[in-house]
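Deliverable D2.4 — example input (C-alpha cells):
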C-alpha cells in the first residue's frame, strides 16, 4: 500500500496538480498524482466520507464554488468567509448556505498558510440578522485525543458524491507547529475532497482549523491535515473586523492622535486638531483587494495627490488606484496603509502641520494606525453576546449583551413579530469617558431600580432601570422568554444632562440613518451622536423593552 498525499478540494486546474506533486516530493512519503476527479456539481448528494447529514440552512457552514471547483468554508461573521488558499477562490466566486447565495468581492490570502478570507458582496443572514452574527476562532491549541466536530461539502465515498453538508466527530491524532492531523474514526468517517477549507468546531462552538490535505491509498483515506486556527486567528480577526459601510476612527499609533478631514478648501487629511465629529469618522468600501476610504461627514473619498508633496486629501475625486488603499496588519492590532497605485505607505509627518502623506517612507509607529469601529451591533436574542467578560456573570440565567471598555450601549432593537429583544448597539467614543471599571447590576424585572430620580418619571407606566448621575449603561440582559431583566451600569465621565426618552416599541425611536441599518426589519431605539444610554424601560407584564433614556455627557 502506498501512502499518498492529496488536498481534499475538488479542483479542475492543472496548476493545482503541479502544486500537489511538488508537495508530495517535499513530504517524501507521497507519489505523484496524474490528476484529481472532478466533482459533478449537478448530481452530487453527499459529503465527508460516511459523514452524517447536517442541515445547511443557518448552519454557518458554506459551500464555495470558484471557477468550477467546490470547497467548504466557514462564515466567521455575516460578510467574511474562511476557507483554504488552495481552493483558489477569486472575486466572482459564489458562496452558498442553504437557500442563500452571495458573490465574493474581495479575497485576502494568508502570506504563509493554506488559509484564505473571502469578503461577500452582501451579508448572509444568520438568526434573522445581517450584521450581528459572529463565530470565534480558537486561540489555544487542541490536546491530542481532544474531540471536535468537523463539517464539509466534500465527497461521501472515495470517488463520488459532493455538495451536501455532512459532519463527523473526530479526535486529534497528532499535531505540528501549524497543523493538526485527524485519522479516520471508528465509523470510517474522515474528511476528503471538497471538504477543503471546511472547519472543525470545538465544544464551545469555536473554529479550530481549516481543512488542507489528506493521505490516502488503495482507494481509502487514512488521515487528513488541517491548519490550526491558533496560528492564524490574530491575522484573520484583524481583517474580519473590517466591515463594509461601518464607521471607523483612525488613530496614529505613535502619538494617539486621530485622523480628520480639515473640511476647508484644501480638504487635507491631518491630525492637527482633534475634533470628535463626523469629519473624524471614515467608512470603508471594498475595492478589489483593497478599500476606498470615505469621510462620513461629506461622503468624499481619500486619495493620494500623486505629486511631489504626495499629500492625502479629498480635494478632487478621481476613481483610480490612487483612491484605493491596501491594509496590512502589523501583528499588534495596528495597520500599515499603502496606496494601491504606487505601494507607498501613509504616515503622519509628525511636525506642526501633522499632515497625512506618503512623502517619505519611514517604518515606524507614525506609519501604523489603529482602526476603531464606532458602532458595533451585538445579537443576544438567543445567547450571550459580550465584547468583554471581565465583569463576570453579572446577570445569572439571562442572556447578556455587553460592550467593551471604551464603549457604551447606544441602541437596542426589538422584533415587531416575535417581540424579542435582539441587538444591542455598542458605540466606541474614541476617548476615555466610558471605562469598564466598578460596574454593577441593576435588576428591574419586578419594579423600578434607579440611581437618580432627577429625570422624573420619563416613561410612565413602565418599570425603569436607570444608572446613577455619573454612570452609563454598558450592558443589557434578557431571560430565555425575552423579557428584560437587568442592565449593567458603569461609572464614567458623564453627567446625565438634557435626558430624553426614545420610545421604540412600535416604531424607530431616535434611530439615526447615518449609523446604517444595524438591524434591518426591526424597530430600533438609538441615542444620537454624542449622547449615551443612561436608562431603559420595560413592559411590566411581558418584559418587552419600551424606551431608552438618552443623555448628554
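Example output (designed residues):
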Amino acid at each position: 500500500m502506498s501512502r499518498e498525499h492529496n488536498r481534499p478540494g475538488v479542483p479542475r486546474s492543472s496548476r493545482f496538480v503541479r502544486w500537489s506533486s511538488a508537495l508530495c516530493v517535499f513530504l517524501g512519503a507521497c507519489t505523484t498524482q496524474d490528476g484529481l476527479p472532478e466533482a459533478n456539481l449537478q448530481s452530487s448528494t453527499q459529503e465527508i466520507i460516511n459523514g452524517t447529514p447536517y442541515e445547511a440552512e443557518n448552519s454557518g457552514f458554506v459551500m464555495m464554488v470558484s471557477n468550477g471547483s467546490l470547497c467548504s468554508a466557514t462564515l466567521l461573521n455575516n460578510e467574511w468567509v474562511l476557507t483554504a488558499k488552495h481552493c483558489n477562490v477569486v472575486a466572482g466566486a459564489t458562496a452558498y448556505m442553504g437557500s442563500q447565495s452571495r458573490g465574493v468581492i474581495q479575497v485576502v490570502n494568508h502570506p504563509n498558510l493554506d488559509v484564505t478570507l473571502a469578503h461577500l458582496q452582501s451579508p448572509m443572514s444568520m438568526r434573522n440578522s445581517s450584521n450581528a452574527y459572529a463565530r470565534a476562532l480558537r486561540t489555544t491549541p487542541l490536546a491530542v485525543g481532544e474531540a471536535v466536530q468537523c463539517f464539509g461539502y466534500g465527497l461521501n465515498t472515495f470517488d463520488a458524491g459532493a455538495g451536501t453538508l455532512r459532519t463527523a466527530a473526530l479526535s486529534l491524532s497528532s499535531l505540528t507547529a501549524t497543523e493538526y492531523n485527524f485519522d479516520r474514526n471508528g465509523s470510517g468517517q474522515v474528511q476528503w475532497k471538497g471538504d477543503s477549507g471546511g472547519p472543525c468546531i470545538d465544544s464551545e462552538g469555536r473554529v479550530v482549523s481549516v481543512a488542507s490535505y489528506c493521505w490516502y491509498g488503495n482507494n481509502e483515506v487514512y488521515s487528513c491535515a488541517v491548519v490550526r486556527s491558533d496560528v492564524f486567528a490574530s491575522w484573520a480577526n484583524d481583517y474580519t473586523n473590517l466591515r463594509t459601510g461601518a464607521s471607523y476612527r483612525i488613530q496614529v499609533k505613535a502619538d494617539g492622535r486621530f485622523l480628520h478631514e480639515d473640511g476647508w478648501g484644501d480638504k487635507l487629511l491631518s491630525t492637527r486638531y482633534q475634533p470628535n465629529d463626523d469629519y473624524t469618522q471614515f467608512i470603508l468600501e471594498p475595492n478589489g483587494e483593497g478599500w476606498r476610504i470615505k469621510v462620513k461627514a461629506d461622503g468624499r473619498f481619500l486619495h493620494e495627490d500623486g505629486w511631489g508633496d504626495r499629500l492625502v486629501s479629498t480635494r478632487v475625486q478621481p476613481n483610480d488606484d490612487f483612491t484605493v488603499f491596501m491594509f496590512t496588519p502589523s501583528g499588534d492590532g495596528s495597520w500599515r496603509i499603502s496606496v494601491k497605485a504606487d505601494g507607498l505607505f501613509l504616515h503622519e509627518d509628525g511636525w506642526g502641520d501633522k499632515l497625512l502623506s506618503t512623502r517619505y517612507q519611514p517604518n515606524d509607529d507614525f506609519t501604523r494606525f489603529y482602526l476603531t469601529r464606532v458602532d458595533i451591533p451585538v445579537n443576544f436574542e438567543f445567547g450571550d453576546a459580550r465584547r468583554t467578560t471581565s465583569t463576570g456573570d453579572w446577570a445569572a440565567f439571562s442572556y447578556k449583551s455587553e460592550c467593551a471598555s471604551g464603549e457604551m450601549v447606544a441602541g437596542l432593537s426589538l422584533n415587531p413579530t416575535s417581540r424579542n429583544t435582539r441587538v444591542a448597539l455598542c458605540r466606541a467614543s474614541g476617548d476615555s469617558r466610558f471605562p469598564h471599571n466598578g460596574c454593577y447590576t441593576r435588576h428591574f424585572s419586578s419594579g423600578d431600580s434607579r440611581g437618580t430620580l432627577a429625570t422624573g418619571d420619563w416613561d410612565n407606566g413602565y418599570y425603569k432601570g436607570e444608572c446613577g448621575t455619573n454612570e452609563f449603561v454598558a450592558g443589557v440582559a434578557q431571560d430565555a422568554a425575552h423579557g428584560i431583566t437587568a442592565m449593567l451600569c458603569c461609572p464614567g465621565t458623564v453627567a446625565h444632562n438634557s435626558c430624553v426618552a426614545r420610545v421604540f416599541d412600535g416604531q424607530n425611536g431616535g434611530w439615526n440613518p447615518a449609523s446604517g441599518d444595524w438591524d434591518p426589519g426591526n424597530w430600533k431605539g438609538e441615542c444620537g451622536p454624542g449622547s449615551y444610554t443612561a436608562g431603559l424601560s420595560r413592559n411590566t407584564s411581558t418584559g418587552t423593552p419600551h424606551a431608552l433614556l438618552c443623555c448628554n455627557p
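Residues 106 and 257 are 30 Å apart (CA to CA).
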